[in-house]
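call fold(seq) -> tokens
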Amino acid sequence: MTARLLVMDVDSTLITGEVIEMLAAHAGSLDLVTQITERAMRGEIEFATSLHERVATLAGLPVSVFDDVRTQLELSPGARELIADVQARGWAVGLVSGGFVELVGPLAASLGITLYRANALEVADGRLTGRVTGPVIDRAAKGVALRDYAAAVGADLAATVAIGDGANDLDMLATAGFGIAFNAKPVVAAQADATLTGRLDAALDLPAFAV
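ret:
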């Protein structure tokens, strides 16, 4: 059987919200962070710049905030069904997120997904420092992640599908054999092979999943 791979963005794709905004709500910086997020999603500012600006507002939050936010995460309609369906067919599933591994890791595990990448938040003395550690998962890194996942599972790029919603997902959508824009910004919808709104499992009706 030919190896197949589905790679998904997390914030506003796999889940309904933006994790950085959930964290910012605890830090009292939600309005500012929301404005920066919107500008980044529209492609008006570089993702890495926006990430550093937003994370800086989280300085001082206790690491217990991860447990609080984890209980707030809500899968997008049809997300669980989509993943279960393709996994049952033998597809590999990967996540790549401009969010944070502290939340993406447990979420991936709950869905039986072992391929995931996300940014890591720096912690000192049990509190967030307002900085990230390691390489930033930006637009280019998402494209690289899809290639790496495909190589890891032995899938040709033509046999890959990517789903995302923001400008940060454009390289990933372009690299995949089939790119799907989900509840996406206009700049993303215009460059995707297909667009979806509402439920993620509606993707199963697209030609990419008929193989």
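The mean pLDDT is 94.
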